[in-house]
Amino acid sequence: MDNPRWWHIAIAATAVVLTAMVLAANLPLWREIGAITTLAVFVASWYFIGRLGFENPIAGLVFTAIVVVSTGVAVGFHPFMAILQCVAYPLVWTMSTRTRNAVVANVALSIAVGIGYWASTRSLPETALTAGLSLAFSLALGLWITDIAERSHERQRLLDELHSTQDRLASVNREAGVASERERLAREIHDTIAQDLTGLVLLAQQARRDLAGGRGAEAAEQLAMIEENARTALAETRALVAASAPVPLSAGGLAEALDRLASRFSRETGIAVTVSGTTADLDRDGEVVLLRCAQESLANVRKHSGARTATLTLSAREGSVRLVVTDDGHGFDPATRSDGFGLGGMRDRLALVGGALDVSSSGSGTTLIATLPRTVTA
């Protein structure tokens, strides 16, 4: 209702209709001139002042006063000029900045129309009926339209807030996705490439000592393992880039992957590793998680335990699969906070697929238990 273009059309159409009615009514000349002149004032005030009233409160107030007076005067020249109320009431309502002001303006317009109607008809009952019905209808319509407008504005505000919240959530989800992917890559790099590089460093150091001591055969064996580990690290890197399954799992199931891991670990470190247990009933994601836990556990055995032997036990229970890693090293205090990524990374990796990690340790060794539900989804 505050679009001036539609008001241009409505006021122009009303003016044309009323002018035609005045000319066709064979009124006395002074009434005809007065009605047309008053109508012209009404129309001119709209195009010069009223159209500015939606943005300028002072212009709106001045135009409202002109509408009230000109409508009452026009009706005073002839009763059918009351048709002007059809645009006058909505105009003064929409020009008002507050509902209270709109009600006051409508009452003033009704009084002006009533005075004009009485002046042209001299019938008090007809005047009261016309003015009263017009006022009641205009107030009911105005309040109804105002309520609809307020509800519309409130809905729009809520929609804007909803869109803003959705945008913020989308941004938070993107950031969370980026952070999650970074954490995943950090775990993968730590559990694969970093461990392989650590093994390469240790093997290279051993090979150098063997060469310095004149043990050529031992040095050649160390160099062969360095080459093998380097190829494995390269393959793991390519698998990580391609986001495919780890290389050990691509050649068989989890049990076979653990056998190969234990064999290579024993050759590199001299620590005897035995593998036992049944094939786990897990999907590929679950197998990857347990394989990474086994790799990280053996890396910790190599770096911290001083163990001579270790075991990997895979068992399937009702509803879950467990990987138990034990060693006969000097142990550590699990309650002591560590700055390393190993145990924390394993817990995070297991938690992502509904699993759990339990660690116990004493002076006679360490036991690590990784538990997963049978059905693991990504």
Provide the descriptors you would attach to this structure in a database record.
378 residues; alpha+beta; rod-shaped; Heat Shock Protein 90; Oxygen sensor histidine kinase NreB; single chain; metal-binding; transmembrane; five-stranded mixed β-sheet; transferase; cytoplasm; 11 helices
Can you tell me about this structure?
With 378 residues, the protein is an alpha+beta fold. Among the domains are: 119 residues, no CATH class; 127 residues, 2-Layer Sandwich (Heat Shock Protein 90), CATH 3.30.565.10. A five-stranded mixed sheet has the order 1-2-3-5-4, covered by helices on one side. The model has no long low-confidence stretch (mean pLDDT 83).
- Name the beta content range: 5-15%
| Widest sheet, order of strands | 1-2-3-5-4
Treating each run of at least 4 consecutive H or I residues as one helix, how many helices?
A: 11
Compute the average pLDDT: 83
User: How would you classify the helix and strand content by structural class?
Assistant: alpha+beta
Spatial shape: rod-shaped
**Mind describing the biggest β-sheet?**
5 strands, mixed
Strand and helix order: HHHHHHHHHEHEEHEE
Kindly provide the radius of gyration, computed on alpha-carbon positions and rounded to a whole number of angstroms: 45 Å
Tally the beta strands: 5
> First CA to last CA: what distance?
55 Å
CATH fold category name of the domain at 252-378? Heat Shock Protein 90
Unreliable segments of 5+ consecutive residues: none
CATH uppermost class of the domain at 252-378: Alpha Beta
Helix content: 55-70%
CATH architecture of the domain at 252-378: 2-Layer Sandwich
CATH superfamily of the domain at 252-378: Histidine kinase-like ATPase, C-terminal domain
